[in-house]
Design goal:
Helix 1 crosses helix 8 and helix 7 packs parallel to helix 8. The chain contains 10 helices and 10 strands. The protein has one domain: Spore Coat Polysaccharide Biosynthesis Protein SpsA, Chain A. Helix content is 34%, strand content 17%. The protein is of the alpha/beta class and 340 residues long.
Length: 340
């Protein structure tokens, strides 16, 4: 088994090294979507005359009312198999002030019917063709009226009923953003944990060590999008990494870490579905640094994908309070490299 991992690792390093030589430095660019402004309330522009539905029923859950409104964006296309679980996990949240915005790319299955049956939860539905996942996400963020914005796509659901309550508490405590841990689960049997992503506490240098938090667990103040821009829609699979790098590393926003599993995500993510896709994502990871005028360490983009190997350890052997000590290991690697 060790020989197999060593061979795969060697092949991966060779592929990435060739890619690094072939990838030119990109000039810093103005964010293409930074001019978009939030829309008032639940109003949605429709310049192209495409079908859209505005569901006016705002979702109010049990519990004491708080001042902090959380907007959740769900991007979907033909997600009839799973979106009911997503909606139900939002319905069950104990946080009282939730705005759920669904951005549908023009589903032809039962997705829209399921959404229509859950108008008590879904606050806004935008249904029209889009330019991909991140373009759709930007539409949702622009329509959001909450103080905090999070993403929960149609394959994902919250791990328990108090996730959003704890997120609001962490932001109220002074955080600009919040993140936690994530379980990848079997698509057909979501009770089976396939990968266990323990994020660990944040320090700015973590990004140099190949670190990133799982994006489905990432919440950020709406004003951060207004100030620093939305997702780059010219990225295909690493716009989430670029956005978090820009927000946390470039602009030094301060996140809070909730040390437990917040989201369960069904397997099948775009950037991790094959080695070829992972290599393409690595090219975008590299570009994320250059377009922001940032310089990664020589080992940063090698360690980023390799750090995911630890996620395949059984969840029961890695409880949330024992996060992997990535900073310690990578500081040793950095010190070793500097001494050569």
């Amino acid at each position: 088994m060790f020989t197999l991992f060593a061979a795969l690792g060697a092949a991966y390093f060779l592929s990435i090294r060739r890619l690094a030589k072939a990838t030119p430095n990109a000039a810093a660019a103005v964010h293409p979507d930074s001019a978009r402004l939030p829309l008032p309330g639940n109003l949605i522009s429709n310049d192209a005359g495409l079908a859209q539905l505005n569901i006016s029923n705002a979702h109010t859950n049990k519990g004491k009312q708080t001042r902090m409104k959380i907007s959740l964006i769900t991007v979907c296309l033909n997600a009839g198999e799973t979106i009911a679980d997503t909606i139900e996990s939002i319905r069950s949240q104990s946080h009282p002030d939730i705005e759920h915005i669904v951005v549908d790319g023009g589903s032809t299955d039962e997705t829209l019917s399921i959404i229509a049956q859950n108008r008590d939860v879904v606050s806004v539905l935008i249904t029209e063709p889009d330019g991909g996942l991140y373009d759709a996400a930007n539409k949702g963020i622009s329509a959001a009226t909450g103080e905090i914005v999070g993403m929960l796509n149609a394959d994902d659901f919250y791990a328990d009923d108090d996730v959003l309550k704890d997120v609001a508490r962490a932001v109220s405590d002074g955080g600009d953003a919040v993140y936690g841990d994530l379980h990848y689960v079997d698509r057909k049997n979501p009770q089976t944990v396939v990968r266990n992503w323990v994020s660990g506490s944040y320090s700015r240098k973590s990004f140099l060590s190949g670190w990133m938090p799982p994006h489905p667990t990432f919440f950020i103040r709406k004003e951060a999008y207004d100030l620093h821009g939305l997702f780059r829609s010219d990225f295909k699979s690493a716009a989430d990494y670029e956005l978090m790098l820009r927000m946390l590393y470039k602009h030094s926003l301060e996140p809070r870490y909730i040390n437990r599993v917040l989201v369960k995500m069904r397997m099948g993510g775009k950037s991790n579905s094959s080695i070829a896709n992972r290599i393409r994502a690595n090219k975008e990871d590299r570009r994320a640094w250059t377009i922001n005028g940032l310089e990664a360490a020589w080992y940063t983009l090698y360690l980023k994908p390799l750090s995911k190997l630890k996620q395949f350890a059984p969840a029961s052997t890695k409880p949330n309070h024992m996060a992997w000590k990535s900073d310690e290991n990578l500081e040793k690697l950095s010190a070793s490299a500097q001494s050569e």
